[in-house]
UniProtKB/TrEMBL annotation, chains A, B:
Residues 464-483 are annotated as: Disordered. Gene3D superfamilies: Aldehyde Dehydrogenase, Chain A, domain 1, Aldehyde Dehydrogenase, Chain A, domain 2. PANTHER family: ALDEHYDE DEHYDROGENASE-RELATED (PTHR43353:SF3), SUCCINATE-SEMIALDEHYDE DEHYDROGENASE, MITOCHONDRIAL (PTHR43353). Keywords: Oxidoreductase. It comes from the Bacteria. This is Aldehyde dehydrogenase (NADP(+)). The keyword Oxidoreductase applies. Coiled coil: none annotated. The keyword Oxidoreductase applies. Pfam families: Aldedh. Residues 3-426 form the Aldehyde dehydrogenase domain.
Amino acid sequence: MTDTTPDELDQVLDDAVAAAAVLRGRSPAERADWLRAAADALDGAAERLIPLAQEESRLPRPRLTGELKRTTFQLRLFADEIAAGAYLHATVDHADPAWGMGPRPDLRRMQLPLGPVAVWAASNFPFAFSVAGGDTASALAAGCPVVLVAHPGHPGLSRATAEVLIAALEGAGAPQGVFALVEGQETGRALITDPRVAAGAFTGSLRGGRALFDLASGRETPIPFYGELGSVNPAFVTTAAAAARAEEVAAGFAGSMALGVGQFCTKPGLLFVPADSPIPGLVAERLKEVAGAPMLNDRIREGYGEALSALASHEVVEVLAGTADPSGDPAPTLLRTSAAEILADPRPLTAELFGPAALVVEYTDDEELLAAARTLEGQLTATIQGEEGDQIAPALLEVLSERAGRVLWGGWPTGVSVTYAQQHGGPYPATTAVGTTSVGTAAIERFLRPVAYQDLPEALLPEPLQDANPWSVPQRIDGVHPS
Amino acid sequence: MTDTTPDELDQVLDDAVAAAAVLRGRSPAERADWLRAAADALDGAAERLIPLAQEESRLPRPRLTGELKRTTFQLRLFADEIAAGAYLHATVDHADPAWGMGPRPDLRRMQLPLGPVAVWAASNFPFAFSVAGGDTASALAAGCPVVLVAHPGHPGLSRATAEVLIAALEGAGAPQGVFALVEGQETGRALITDPRVAAGAFTGSLRGGRALFDLASGRETPIPFYGELGSVNPAFVTTAAAAARAEEVAAGFAGSMALGVGQFCTKPGLLFVPADSPIPGLVAERLKEVAGAPMLNDRIREGYGEALSALASHEVVEVLAGTADPSGDPAPTLLRTSAAEILADPRPLTAELFGPAALVVEYTDDEELLAAARTLEGQLTATIQGEEGDQIAPALLEVLSERAGRVLWGGWPTGVSVTYAQQHGGPYPATTAVGTTSVGTAAIERFLRPVAYQDLPEALLPEPLQDANPWSVPQRIDGVHPS
């Protein structure tokens, strides 16, 4: 990996600023075509990119094939979303001399792109959260140029993907500078503190993300920083579900926590079960059948080993399956403690552990379960395994919806579908921006800012705000939502 | 003014947390009734409140009568907005086995309230940006309890308004703790760093707002901080407009900059005119007719005097009308410089000056005007006085829409109507949250966070996400916007 030099970064940012100006003059329909061209080019380059990804990420080919499909699907979905125009939130208030607080001028508001966005790639999704991943797709969809900081875990793939992406975007008519790849940790720090950058987006560790958030907030001119920092993703098995479906719950949990060597930010890391349940034993049995597998890179492997050793050696934690031995490719590890211990000192037991380990938490009654749930910090997801008519369900749902971005009933949190209603976010430390999502079409909103125009002549108004509405975007007119 | 004690604040916050839990169980229609009851009670208390406001703010009665009307109109408009339910952004994706990236679960997202919000009152709008003002109204509309830090400029009015507001809210069925008034600068610092507070909203000075933003961002758990910090609100007169309407432009500008002794965050503080225009002289003549008037309080008067003296004594600035004499009630002051000086060193000449002073900036040609406009920082507003067919208009509009939250054509920025399309915000230092507005119905969005529910049974889903849709809120279903 060769760090981008300060001079190179300076040129990249000048180009991004120039591209931002060009983008402001292009319609969402044009940008949609660029995104579709990028998707087609990436699909076409699969046979070049997937072997590179296999080599650098140690992930298996079927997983990478599926991830590339997700990545190009996402680009096309975001293209359709912006082409339809609702994302502009075009709002037209005609002048009204009879307005209740006094005569109202003609006011029209829409969303405009923020400007150049810095994006940090993640290691665990070398396609879907990397060079052409969700943050890049949503920033480009919003009309913002992207400067992407490559993840050092897959440098060759990053460069190859960037090459395909840039050729496709510029080939489809996007301006030079609409996307650039840069490398190096210091480059990232220079980027987030540069006045030419209007926002940052990041998926990665709490430590790295918080450091960048602090830089973004501490600037002379602070900018939004959308950090997705991680989550322990608690799962809760009610007494009724434990009685009715112990085998199914155990199999589902084991599969979800061990999937991809536990390297998902939505990996369920805590499983609350009734104290007398057979579920911990059943999960342990399942996990013992899972062989060790290589992690994404040695740094992650080491971090996992250290965090696991610390948790496993905690005096209130017992190892049920697997080993805290830090050598070799890690096999899944299951640990156990009690809800009473969580209540006594939650933080050391409920922090994210990135890798194939999880902690079973045994509770004695519903009150204790709810109290333990209330100790949890912000989460990307929280899962309930319950049964119809479960007495605890409404109260538990309320506690979890206050703490998590997504609450599941009867499924498992790994697998984050890209849809209109998806919410991949949550209160800190799950993210640094509680009101936003980094997955799903609403991710585009992070890179927009509203502007109102007062008493502008029709000819000077942006197309989405004109009475003639030449792009046929949905307009809220005088308070009436579009129909 | 008696500072709230730490023990009192602790109780207020415990009550706010308890109220937040109750609010989560109430429908927007119920909250709308509370807001309407508050509006009615405030209107009914006009004869008690307005004299208090006159005494403490030194503002004239007609202005305060209009401001109270604005305040109660705003409460009722926000009530209607939440009752209609579109603000929930209810989004329903049914399970879809044929979804392009692989089978999709049932996913449903809506907006939930953030939790207790800390609000700082402003001095210059003792009703509309104070106890029952826009931040309070939008936070309550979102379903968040409010802890309001009274402005020391109108303590008696603040307490009286809080009394009326609390009685009305609780009388209409809102829980105890839904609103509380606290006092003191240290109380404010304790509030923004308290883990029970979920967001902050502030209207006031750059210095005070930045200090609170830094505290909010530096917390162990950072929270959103919506600071409206101010703006110099540049106005640009094109050569065509200067030739066609010099008298009208001069009269309009003089009226807007001197209105309310220049104590609006939207006061136009910069007026760009062609170098040979009679406008500066015409403005000066108008201003000489305006008598001095008392400012809101002595602290503001002193701050204004210091900032004005500094600007007036700048070697490239000339005084055209009024005086930089800091004694007595200030009469309007008009200063003059050139665009070349702005280009040479913009910051000292383009900072906000809160009070009845403005700087005329003479430019030699359109290129210089555009270049000077590009030096400006983030603004709440920017105004163009132009003519049909003005060559410079599109380029100037583009430069200004990148820098301001609201761009006006042919009017003046004082007077901020509360509407659906209003945008009172802008890039830093106009605000600390570029994607938001503090005026208009969209202000409610600041206090919400999205949550997605996956595969929940209908009976456990919140009402806005149920297929039966018992509240009849607009739902985006499977990507199709409501109609």
